[in-house]
Amino acid sequence: MRILVLRQRDSRMVGQEGQAMTEFALSMTLLVALLVGIIALAWVGFCYVSITSAARMGTRHMITYPTSPQDPHRFANVDAEITYVVTSSMPMLDWRQATIIILPQPPASRLSGTQVSVQIVYPMNTPTIRIPYGLREGSFVLLPPITLNATSRMRLD
């Protein structure tokens, strides 16, 4: 038979539960902020790799078909086909936001030995996180909008 003995709380342990909860709340806030930062940085990296790959795919297509489209029934000109190749190579990104620059223009100037390039400018809308100043009025934006640029250049042979 066991006898359950109730102990009286030690006077030294009175504030320990509150201190532990406060430390947990502070450390979890920092860990969640770090996790969100890592995810945001990974998304920026993914977007940059996607538009770089899309620019490379467009330039490769331009090297293969520099002056006339591969599918003339579907595309009016070669630049429309290159734009289609670039936009279809950007997974999970809103291709309508991208600005695609194909050089040289016009397509008839793409002769053997010339440099051709596809440049993509992609504005990224990051979540707006405003942090207030501690000692004065106003705040600053933690993640401003980012504009990513990717250019692929190749020489026609």
Total E-strand runs: 5
Cα distance, first to last residue? Answer: 95 Å
Element pattern in H and E: HHEEEEE
Q: What kind of sheet is the major sheet?
A: 3 strands, antiparallel
- Unreliable stretches, pLDDT < 50, 5 or more residues? none
Number of helices: 2
Task: Please identify the structural class as seen in this structure.
Answer: alpha+beta
What is the overall shape?
A: elongated
Compute the number of structural domains. Answer: 1
How much helix, percentage-wise, in residues?
Answer: 25-40%
Strand neighbour order, sheet with most strands:
1-2-5
What radius of gyration results from the CA coordinates?
28 Å
What fraction of residues sit in β-strands? 15-25%
Could you report the average pLDDT, rounded to the nearest whole number?
A: 88
Report a brief summary of the structure:
With 157 residues, the chain is α+β, with helices and mostly antiparallel strands.
Notes on the structure:
The chain is of the alpha+beta class and 157 residues long. The chain has one domain (25-155). Helix content is 38%, strand content 20%. The chain is built from 2 helices and 5 strands, in the order ααβββββ. The strands form 2 sheets. Strands 1-2-5 form a 3-stranded antiparallel sheet, with helices on one face. The protein has a two-stranded antiparallel sheet with strand order 3-4. β3 and β4 form a beta hairpin. It is elongated, with a radius of gyration of 28 Å. The termini are far apart. The mean pLDDT is 88.
